Amino acid sequence: MKEEEPKLLRVSRAAHELGLHPFTVRKWVKAGKIQAIRVGNEARIPRSEIERLVGKIDGRLLVLYGRVSGHGQKDDLDMQLQRLHVWAASERRGQELLVLSDIGSGLSASRKQLRRLLTLVCEDKVREVAITYEDRLTRFGQEYLETLFASFGVTLTVLEPGEEKTSEQELTDDLLAVIASFSGRLYGMRSHKQKELLKCAQAVINNP
After folding, report:
1. Which residues form the Resolvase/invertase-type recombinase catalytic domain (predicted)?
2. HSE-up of 27 (CA within 13 Å, CB side)?
3. SS3 of 140-156
4. Annotated active-site residue in 12, 48, 69, 101
5. Which helix (H) or strand (E) holds 94?
6. CA 133 from centre of chain
7. Residue 129 near residue 65 (C-beta atoms within 8 A)
8. CA-CA distance, 117 to 126, in Å (whole number)?
């Protein structure tokens, strides 16, 4: 005899059925986007709420986003997008896709397709954003983007999460990124002067 599905679901089970992170479900409950029933100290989600939300969530987009810093890295951008397509075909089969990409610094907030992505998120049209590496969306302030995404129930998936870095390594990477961005504006992203400046900065950092 088939076991009857529970009418009240724990947050973790509801999140699994909706394809969301439990943190997102809790935020939606708190914001009133999902109706929940208190059972002791826990929130339980009625199955009717899951059924109500499934249609809306399934209609939202999976956005594949790629970025490189300069036009000379076009091959790298193609590889990023190809990797994302392969992943989506395997792990997110049947979901409606939107592919966005930019050529520009990760420090720039004026990237056209990044702005388009954020607009779509705020219009509640995005379910998930997938990127290959953590710095593809932005070099700084990713925590702000993650907070925005969570507020709209958007999952951020990083296919190749980086190894854990020490605080010194993170500061070094951030400093070099700032120098690369500003020297690129001053001399050009692939100029001899910019390369020399970065080389000098790296030498100073490695030998304080």
Report:
1. 61-205
2. 13
3. CCHHHHHHHHHHCCCEE
4. 69
5. none
6. 9
7. yes
8. 8
Contacts of 72 (CB under 8 A, 6+ apart): 190
**10 Å Cβ neighbour count for 80?**
23
For residues 64 and 98, the answer to whether their CB atoms sit within 8 Å is: yes
Question: What gap in Å lies between CA 185 and CA 91, rounded to an integer?
Answer: 39
* Interatomic CA distance for residues 53 and 20, integer angstroms: 11
Two tokens at 14? 């509801």
Residues in the chain: 208
Give the C-alpha separation, 117 to 106, whole Å.
15
Q: What is the pLDDT of residues 95-126, one digit of tens each?
A: 889 999 998 877 777 889 999 999 999 988 89
Yes or no: say if 46 and 116 are a contact pair by the CB < 8 Å rule. Answer: no
Contact (Cβ atoms closer than 8 angstroms) between residue 189 and residue 198: no
Tell me, yes or no, if the pTM score tops 0.85: no
Asked about 69 being catalytic, the answer comes back as yes
d(CA 71, CA 52): 45
- Identity (one letter) of the amino acid at 34? I
Q: Which residues pair with 65 in a beta bridge?
A: 100
Q: How many CB atoms lie within 10 A of CB 154?
A: 25
